[in-house]
Amino acid sequence: MAGLNAIEIRSVSKVFGFGEYAFSAVDDASVSIRQNEFFTLLGPSGCGKTTLLRLIAGFEYPTSGEIMLNGDNIAAMPPFKRPINTVFQSYALFPHMTVAENIGFGLTMLGRPKQEIRDRVAAMLKLVRMEALANRRTSQISGGQQQRVALARALAPQPKVLLLDEPLSALDYKLRKDMQIELKRLQAETGITFIFVTHDQEEALTMSDRIAVMSAGKILQVGNPREIYDAPTDRFVADFIGETNFLKGRIHAVNSGIAEVETAAAGRISATMPSNFSDDGEVTLVLRPEHAALCGPADHERCQMTGTLETIVYFGTDTHYHVRLADNETLFTLREQNKPLQAARYAEGDRVGVAIEPNAARVLRS
Ligand code: ATP
């Protein structure tokens, strides 16, 4: 099977309802998910990520398009025959059964031999570090422990693909952080392809090998976390992931992939262009707050923009500055990491300059 994609989504659409009530929950989505990959579908509520997951699981059928598993079309395969398992947000454990019985449930249903079930359950209890609670009922364990049992139960039949639908959303912040590391470990140790659904961009960036960003049923961009964060090809992606400044402008000249963009807010700024970008007049510049720094307004060597410092917000690890740019409209956010016992260098109301790091500004279509 080496070389084949674990899952291939080929021009898949899913329309709910008919006629004037027809609604495209997934709209011509295409993506290939590799073997052993931790792949995340990321997008806001209602963008279609759960529907895409349900199509892969077989709980829904595509209106058009094909879904391939290891190179085979699985349209005719019912959900229970697919070598795919799902971990739901609600865990859906059986409260009257013990941890071990829950983990072995799927294998029992498949009619596997008793000894095999005992061995698999023992291996899964070890994998999720729940040996000590094997005989406890799942109604008597914590939320984090329930999550581990749900994972063990889904992994026990050794699926080729594990689907995870916002599995960490019910956990508190600290436990969620721990489970993120735990999930990465489980995926690496089992070598199973994980397809993870979340609306939490930080979760997606920290856990995934690759991410597909979705909006309104469409997949807008697929890439590894660094590509998605540093080189968004779409305005929605730039806005949804992390904090971003947007400046409207017009391309003045292009030289070796670097555009000189004339902006109303801040004059001329150099910016990198995505490959295949064609200049069609109006563009938007995107710039991350941590890729800019304050400088003296007369420091023309460093400062590409000038403005008035409106607010300073101290966050402990860093400080956020909001600068009203020359057009008196655009509020530009920048972020500087704090140094130990550093005295404040600027005050609200100061005239300031803004220095942009090389290659930090990026051109997108307006
Ligand atoms: P969330 O994060 O809130 O779960 P999501 O991105 O997973 O959102 P989906 O559950 O896939 O979104 O839903 C996508 C869109 O399709 C939504 O507008 C939803 O209302 C609609 N939808 C989903 N299932 C059905 C259905 N069975 N009938 C009609 N519309 C549906």
Sketch the major β-sheet: 6 strands, mixed
Per DSSP, the total helix count is 8
Order of H and E elements: EEEHEEEHHHEHEHEEHHEEEEEEEEEE
Structural class by helix and strand composition? alpha+beta
List cofactors, ions and other ligands.
Answer: adenosine-5'-triphosphate
Which residue ranges are poorly predicted, with pLDDT under 50 across at least 5 consecutive positions?
A: none
Going across the major beta sheet, what is the strand order? 6-7-8-3-9-10
Oligomer: single chain
Topology:
Elements: E1 7-16, E2 23-33, E3 38-42, H1 49-57, E4 64-69, E5 72-73, E6 84-87, H2 99-109, H3 114-127, H4 143-155, E7 161-165, H5 173-190, E8 193-198, H6 201-207, E9 210-215, E10 218-223, H7 225-230, H8 235-240, E11 245-255, E12 258-263, E13 267-272, E14 282-287, E15 292-295, E16 305-314, E17 318-325, E18 331-337, E19 351-356, E20 362-365
Parallel strand pairs: 3-8, 3-9, 6-7, 7-8
Antiparallel strand pairs: 1-2, 1-4, 4-5, 9-10, 11-12, 11-14, 12-13, 14-20, 15-19, 16-17, 16-19, 17-18
Helix pairs in contact: 2-3, 2-4, 3-4
The structure holds adenosine-5'-triphosphate.
Structure overview:
It is a single chain. The chain has 366 residues and is of the alpha+beta class. It is 23% helix and 35% strand. The protein contains eight helices and 20 strands. The protein has helices at 49-57, 99-109, 114-127, 143-155, 173-190, 201-207, 225-230, 235-240, and strands spanning 7-16, 23-33, 38-42, 64-69, 72-73, 84-87, 161-165, 193-198, 210-215, 218-223, 245-255, 258-263, 267-272, 282-287, 292-295, 305-314, 318-325, 331-337, 351-356, 362-365. Strands 6-7-8-3-9-10 form a six-stranded mixed β-sheet, with helices on both faces. Strand 17 and strand 18 (331-337) form a beta hairpin. Helix 2 (99-109) crosses helix 3 and helix 2 runs parallel beside helix 4. The longest helix is centred in the middle third of the chain and has 18 residues, at 173-190. The protein is globular. The two termini are 43 Å apart. Bound molecules: adenosine-5'-triphosphate. Residues 16-17, 23, 25, 43, 45-51, 199 line the site of adenosine-5'-triphosphate.
